[in-house]
Specification:
The complex is a heterodimer of chains A (187) and B (177).
Chain A (H helix, E strand, L loop, with lengths): L3 H12 L2 H7 L1 E2 L6 H10 L4 E3 L6 E4 L6 E7 L2 E9 L6 H13 L5 E5 L22 E9 L4 E2 H24 L13
Antiparallel strand pairs in A: 1-8, 2-3, 3-4, 4-5, 5-7, 6-7
Chain B lengths: L1 H5 L3 E2 L6 H10 L5 E2 L4 E4 L5 E8 L2 E9 L6 H14 L4 E4 L19 E9 L4 E2 H24 L9 H15 L1
Antiparallel strand pairs in B: 1-8, 2-3, 3-4, 4-5, 5-7, 6-7
The chains are: A alpha+beta (187), B alpha+beta (177).
Chain lengths: 187, 177
């Protein structure tokens, strides 16, 4: 016989509208794959598509100036972005801007491409990305999902990620250093 | 109840306190200094220390490496950028660096810069001890790589751990006599 506590929880769930149930339902770790997550995100009104060039990531469609992806990497989901600086920006200035964005906090990591190592192949176990356009800014934000994840968590992470990128881009724009050419679709 | 059955190791955010994290670290053999508002973890490397803060449903793990006073700012920034590209999970930044908005010349060096690495764990939905320890280990691993890179590029003054420094000093004393 179900306990009173369990009956109360079932009634509580039944009274919630479907979107709330969807938002709070835990997606188990085994279902956190591009093929399983893509249709779920589409159902939640995300504009996403499987990346035909990279089976371990989903494209998250964004406005012309920025590209967003969701990458699948073991116990982590990784939001990644890429946007351009204006051609001819001195490397030193770009690095200072990147550092300011990283000091701002909120968990989003910014970096500048190309990343020039001080010594070539210093860490062979850490290959640098090669398919990012030159003089671009990339950022990433990691969501730990070893115990599963909810849509609410993913949307909160996505919104914070986009907000931090917009803040950084806005700062770069005010300095007259933001690229005007639209970024081609990743991959 | 269902959540606890499927994830028995989850800690609710409302039950998270620095004291719990301190207990967890001590259990796994990490020495911890309770600084009341944050935890400080000594490391065997000179100039490297780790702090843990817990505020607003975020557990913030951060570590700093003291860089040399005579290093090139451009070189320091290149190192930081390279680490952010290469080392996953950890976010690196340079404290006390030049601010472009304030018009400070890039060639004017700060007195001393700290290379910071951090991992932020949002815990509003709860988190697990395993998750915390994975993040803690990732931070230490990332900082060690950063420390090695800084040593290799001449950006750290004292590239010795405490044990090696003691041995070095003992050998110096023996030469003096």
């Amino acid at each position: 016989m179900p306990t009173d506590d369990l009956i109360q929880r079932v009634h509580c769930l039944a009274s919630m509208d479907l979107p709330s149930v969807m938002q709070n339902a835990v997606i188990p770790p085994e279902s956190i794959t591009p093929e399983d997550l893509c249709p779920l995100l589409e159902q939640a009104d995300w504009s996403v598509s499987l990346d035909p060039t990279n089976p371990s990531r989903i494209n998250i469609h964004a406005d012309g100036g920025i590209s967003l992806w969701l990458g699948f990497d073991g116990p982590y989901l990784r939001f990644t972005s890429c946007w351009r600086l204006r051609p001819g920006v001195p490397v030193g200035a770009a690095l200072v801007l990147i550092n300011q964005a990283n000091c701002a906090g909120f968990g989003v990591t910014f970096c500048y491409y190309p990343a020039l190592p001080l010594q070539p192949n210093y860490f062979p176990d850490y290959p640098l990305p090669k398919d990012i356009p030159a003089q671009s800014v990339g950022s990433c934000f990691v969501v730990h999902c070893a115990h599963g994840v909810t849509l609410r968590q993913l949307e909160g992470a996505r919104d914070n990620f986009i907000l931090q990128n917009n803040l950084a881009m806005s700062r770069v724009f005010k300095l007259g250093l933001l690229g005007e050419e639209p970024l081609e679709t990743a991959g | 109840m269902k959540r606890q059955q499927s994830n028995p190791g989850l800690i609710e955010a409302t039950q998270l306190h620095l004291a719990d994290i301190e207990e967890l670290l001590l259990k796994y053999g990490h020495p911890v200094i309770d600084e009341s508002e944050f935890l400080s973890i000594p490391t065997p490397f000179f100039g490297m220390y780790i702090n843990i803060n817990c505020e607003n449903s975020i557990v913030d793990l951060s570590g700093a490496i003291e860089l040399t006073r005579n290093g090139s700012l451009r070189k320091q920034l290149r190192l930081v950028n390279w680490l952010n590209n290469a080392v996953p999970l950890v976010r690196f930044s340079l404290a006390q660096a030049a601010d472009l908005d304030k018009g400070i010349d890039l060639l004017q060096l700060p007195d001393r810069s700290d290379l910071w690495g951090s991992i932020a764990l949002p815990v509003a939905s709860g988190f697990s001890k395993r998750q915390f320890l994975i993040a803690f280990d990732a931070l230490i691993t990332g900082l060690i790589h950063a420390y090695a890179a800084a040593v290799g590029t001449g950006l750290v003054d004292a590239p010795m751990c405490e044990a090696c420094a003691g041995q070095f000093e003992a050998e110096e004393d023996s030469y003096a006599h």
